[in-house]
Amino acid sequence: QVCAQLCRRPCYCPWVPPRCPRGSPLVLDGCGCCKICARRLGEPCDFLHVCDQSQGLVCDYSTAPAGTRGTCNFEDDEEGCEVNGRVYRDGEVFQPSCKLQCRCLDGGFTCIPLCQEDVRLPTPDCPYPRRVEIPGKCCPEWICEARDQHLLRDARAVSPVLPYPCQEWGTEWSACSATCGVGFATRVSNQNRYCRLETQRRLCMVRPCPALPAAFPAVS
């Protein structure tokens, strides 16, 4: 009876079909009448506004009060995750880009980098290493580039002109060298006036060191 009320004949559909967001295909509505955008994982649905069956989604009314809309969910109640408009099943491994490999798990996802985050410090045979994007390759690579030596000798220069724009890069700061009191943390970074990789240090203190007990005998 409800279907007979909702599905009126003949069909009256808009001339121009709707523009759907990425990952939502055009499908026929529940009456098999007009083209609509399929609902995605977690979106509201009902008899007319159907879920994307190509992703294994159905309209789940289990948690909805009677007479209200349901929610698009997997038919077997298996959790999944949606990334860039695409739905992945629980446990599925995928690559959103050539630099990342991800795994769908319990409705979320975790990723690991596929490109090595190595550091190349200046050496005599490569005094000016630089990390650049190589055409046709996914991961950036280190190259050795000859630069004018006077830029390094002229310490009085306020803003030396580099032959290319400096893309800032650096590692995370390391753990403090001391568990109490003042220590040092280090990192490798090119955030300096010459855009050159160097090891940088800064002071750190996790917590103050506990004072010796007052009754502790002094040692001469």
Automatic annotation (TrEMBL):
PROSITE patterns with a match to the protein in the record: IGFBP_N_1 (PS00222), IGFBP_N_2 (PS51323), TSP1 (PS50092), VWFC_1 (PS01208), VWFC_2 (PS50184)
CC annotations in GO: extracellular matrix; extracellular space; nucleus
Keyword Disulfide bond among record annotations: yes
Span of domain VWFC: 79-145
One GO MF term: heparin binding
This protein's record includes keyword Secreted: yes
Pfam family, one: VWC
Domain IGFBP N-terminal: 1-75
Highest taxon in the source lineage: Eukaryota
InterPro entries: CCN (IPR050941), Growth_fac_rcpt_cys_sf (IPR009030), IGFBP-like (IPR000867), Insulin_GF-bd_Cys-rich_CS (IPR017891), TSP1_CCN (IPR043973), TSP1_rpt (IPR000884), TSP1_rpt_sf (IPR036383), VWF_dom (IPR001007)
UniProt keyword terms in alphabetical order: Cell adhesion, Disulfide bond, Secreted, Signal
Matching Gene3D superfamilies: Complement Module, domain 1, Thrombospondin type-1 (TSP1) repeat
Cell compartments where the protein resides: Secreted
Alphabetical GO biological process terms: cell adhesion; positive regulation of cell differentiation; signal transduction
Family: Belongs to the CCN family.
Entries under PANTHER family matching the protein: CCN FAMILY MEMBER 5 (PTHR11348:SF22), CONNECTIVE TISSUE GROWTH FACTOR-RELATED (PTHR11348)
Function: May play an important role in modulating bone turnover. Promotes the adhesion of osteoblast cells and inhibits the binding of fibrinogen to integrin receptors. In addition, inhibits osteocalcin production.
UniProt-recorded name of the protein: CCN family member 5
Record organism: Tachuris rubrigastra
Gene, per the UniProt record: Wisp2
